[in-house]
Inverse folding.
């Protein structure tokens, strides 16, 4: 499921990089590239954390998912705050790109999960 979401997000990232380069020039391109790197790192760490927690229990998996999401939002807010006065790249385009990619990734995950047919009863399972 995460692969399909990552593929959709990669397409959105390419579109955002092009749009930021067109509307923001080299500062927009740099902002979008940094945002793509930050978001890719965030979701890569989330997949690792949730994957590792899934080996423990479903409850640990939920806590890991919620915890990593909370940490990602806090770090993103911190980065946007630190970069808002940057003259090296457009902080506005950085924030916009990061938000768009997060929403696309989460939307793709939701869409994939809705269409995945998962058994909730094991047909050959023991009682």
């Amino acid at each position: 499921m995460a692969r399909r979401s990552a593929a959709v997000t990669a397409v959105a990232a390419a579109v955002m990089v092009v749009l930021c380069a067109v509307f923001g020039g080299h500062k927009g391109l740099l902002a979008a590239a940094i945002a793509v790197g930050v978001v890719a790192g965030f979701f890569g760490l989330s997949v690792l954390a949730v994957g590792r927690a899934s080996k423990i229990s479903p409850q640990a998996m939920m806590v890991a998912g919620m915890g990593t999401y909370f940490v990602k939002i806090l770090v993103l807010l911190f980065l946007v705050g630190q970069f808002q006065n940057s003259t090296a790249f457009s902080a506005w385009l950085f924030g916009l790109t990061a938000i768009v990619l997060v929403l696309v990734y989460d939307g793709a995950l939701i869409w994939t999960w809705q269409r995945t047919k998962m058994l909730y009863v094991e047909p050959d399972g023991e009682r």
